[in-house]
Design goal:
The protein has about 350 residues and is mainly α. Helix content is about 55%, strand content about 5%. The strands form two sheets. A three-stranded parallel sheet has the order 1-2-3. Strands 4-5 form a two-stranded parallel sheet. The longest helix is centred in the last third of the chain and has 30 residues. The radius of gyration is 21 Å and the shape is globular. The structure holds tryptophanyl-5'AMP.
């Protein structure tokens, strides 16, 4: 085992993942990937491209392949450092699905039925035609996290409920069979934890949203970003001032603040006496500038495909070594006979 395979036991461990089910957007970046990068300073980090989660919704084969590599490239381009962190593809480590099965046996139907994301994704659909994978999705997510005995899980607000379920399942297992799992904490930044759609501030920014104008993709060209921000809905009134009665503007102010480092108060003062148009024009430049270095790096990674593939290969080996240790303990706890 090389020195890299064994991550130090001293630092707390992070696990997180994103689905390759479409283009990554500014919500994924601000809510999750930016924190993946920051947490490398204090934690040993494991970042996964969760392709098995993506197939709970039908994917076009070629798109899934491309999107999977795109997500890995986005992690690397944003600053996830494969010398320090493990980056891998979920389906390359079969332990995820095996642990999922074992966790299935202690997870309740009622718990899964209460998951907001499941309810949203299946709203209006008849139970007869809802895929079992969509229902069971949070158990796979619990397996992802628990396999690595992660202490912390950086996610956007929309995944909090799934991490809470993971905690419940971990505690239940530890109680019933003896301690095998670390009970993880969700890490959700107040700023960026819930980036809203540009055309409807009541909905989160999402890749599955109907309109392209609702989100800024990580790879959107500068002019596309400018157009989308210009078209973003704003609230009635003319003053650049946030607040609960101005959800659309507040969302834009949040994005401005996170990416520029200025506080909301400073930004509001900067635009006193100016209108939405000035504010939006400047915000567009802030976003364009923030994404430019990531986009450049993604293009470089796309030009040399072998680098990312090598990172993913090493990542899967390192991940598997950790996952197999946890799984061996789990099998023992449950009473499965070790393979002779
Ligand atoms: P996914 O792929 O939908 O999103 C990836 C990450 O981006 C965050 N996010 C947002 N944050 C702020 N504002 C938004 N509008 C926004 N939209 C998305 C998500 O919260 C997430 O952190 N089930 C997970 C993937 C997953 C996972 C895991 C995460 C599978 N296994 C284990 C952590 C640990 C998902 O579908 O995320």
């Amino acid at each position: 085992m090389s020195g890299q395979e064994e991550i130090s036991a001293r630092r707390p461990r992070v696990f997180s993942g994103s689905q390759p089910s479409g283009t990554l957007h500014l919500g994924n970046y601000l809510g999750a990937i930016r924190n993946y990068v920051a947490m490398q300073e204090t934690h040993d980090c494991i970042y996964c491209v969760v392709d098995l989660h993506a197939i709970t919704v039908r994917q076009v084969r070629a798109d899934l392949r491309r999107n999977t590599i795109d997500v890995a490239n986005a992690y690397l381009a944003a600053g996830v450092d494969p010398e320090r962190s493990i980056v891998f593809i979920q389906s390359h480590v079969p332990a995820h699905t095996e642990l999922m099965w074992i966790l299935n046996t202690i997870t309740y139907m009622g718990e899964l039925r209460r998951m907001t994301q499941f309810k949203d994704k299946t709203a209006g659909a008849e139970g007869e035609s809802i895929g079992v994978g969509l229902f069971d999705y949070p158990v796979l997510m619990a397996a992802d996290i628990l396999l690595y005995r992660a202490d912390a899980v950086p996610v956007g607000e929309d995944q909090k409920q799934h991490v809470e379920l993971t905690r419940d399942v971990a505690e239940r297992f530890n109680h019933a069979f003896g301690k095998a799992f670390v009970v993880p904490d969700p890490i959700i930044r107040t700023e960026g934890g819930r980036v809203m759609s540009l055309d409807d501030p009541a909905k989160k920014m999402s890749k599955s949203a109907g309109s392209e104008n609702s989100y800024i993709a990580l790879m959107d060209a500068p002019d596309v970003i400018r157009r989308k921000i210009r078209r973003a809905v704003t609230d009635s009134g003319t003053e650049v001032r946030g607040g609960p009665e101005k959800p659309a503007l507040t969302n834009l102010l949040d994005i401005y603040s996170i990416l520029s480092g200025a506080t909301i108060g400073e930004i509001e003062r900067r635009y006193e006496g100016k209108g939405y148009a000035d504010f939006k024009a400047d915000l567009a430049e802030v976003v364009v500038e923030a994404l430019a270095p990531i986009q450049t790096r993604i293009r470089e990674l796309e030009a040399d495909k072998s680098y990312t593939l090598e990172v993913l290969k090493t990542g899967a080996e390192r991940a598997e070594a950790i996952a197999e240790r946890t799984l061996a303990k789990v099998r023992e706890r449950v009473g499965l006979v070790p393979r002779p």
